[in-house]
Amino acid sequence: MLYEVRDPVHGFIVYDELERDLINSKPFQRLRRVKQLALTHMVYPGAVHTRFEHSLGVMEVASQLFDTMMQKGGHELLRALGIRREGERERLRRVLRLAALLHDVGHPPFSHAPEEGLLPGGHEAMSAKLIREAEIRAIIEDQHYRAGIRVEEDIIPVAVGVKHSNARLTAVHQFLSELITGVFGADRMDYLLRDSLHTGVKYGQFDLHRLIHTLTFVQDPKTQDPFVALEVGGVHAAEGLILARYFMFQQVYHHHVRRMYDQHLRQALRDLLPDGQWPLAPDEYVAWDDSRVEAAIFHEASAGGSRWASILANRLHFKLVFEAPEGDIQRYLDQHSDLSALLAERFGEEVYVDSQNRPLVRDRELNVRILGRQGLSSWVTESRIFGVLPPLAFLRVYADRRDDLIKDVRNALSRFVG
């Protein structure tokens, strides 16, 4: 039996009985109540989409990537992966789809924002725990045992990485994982298009189908393992994705109000959660979702039990007092530690300093290989985008909304930075 669901990004997404049973499981259904972009809807009201629909979208895009690879040389790819058995191609495709479907199942309420300091090991470790210990394993290995898929050996290494599994790293794990979380992986492709659609901005748009159909694979000269490469005709489509990420970070993910709400949410949860962090037992963890957190926040705010809960409930987030100019950002980042110490000593928790300085394109992403008419070349050689994109860098100072405090903070900043 096949089933289908209509998706605003990819049209109809088709899934089978095993996938349906996983979608109907309690850990996966919880994702309906976990927003993809935390409290971004406080800035962009349409950003109330969830990890549930994103996970379906990643499964769909990963399938398209796999099918494209097989069309371009399925026999060679299977041989490079060390696969000789008949019918293994369909099994690989199913493993990829299940791993893509489950890759985000361990996200806490409000996704990334409440992980820092609240979820030991991060959402990847919790995803592995839920796949291994909750009803998901029984669905895959018992209820659908004829599929011949094992959670520990097949799903977890591809969904969240071998470091969260007891399995040995194989070329199969590495290749399938790259199709989900790689430089041009399904996860990145889906969230950019989906976040752009729901926030109402155009920055996240790129040519998805052109990019998918210009991705291919080549073999490592030493190990003969296959890895994802890009045909030279897809360079501009790939640049479109890189630029989409850059502008989405600048305009949406790093929006100054959204970042302040993230901080207030973490502060409130340290007061509200038992022992100040998310429970690690699977049954207790899946009982938490956005609705439960919001109810706790409003209850604490009405009872006067948590200052941070009251700030969230009444939308009285700290105000942006100062933002370093982008053209001179490095000078301010060099003074970050001294500035933070000065403001903390004088104003305590009444002031918050938020900063970041990291490249948009990490070192591993520079290793993408381009397949041209003269053979392999590097991503850096074929594209000039990397040479002109600045890092994702900012330094901001926020303060509580009292006029006298804001004036004092500005005076302190003026004396420190001029």
From TrEMBL:
GO molecular function, one term: dGTPase activity
Keywords for this protein: Hydrolase
Domain HD: 51-192
Entry keyword annotation includes Hydrolase: yes
GO terms classed as biological process: dGTP catabolic process
PROSITE patterns in alphabetical order: HD
Identification of the protein by name: Phosphohydrolase
Organism: Limnochorda pilosa
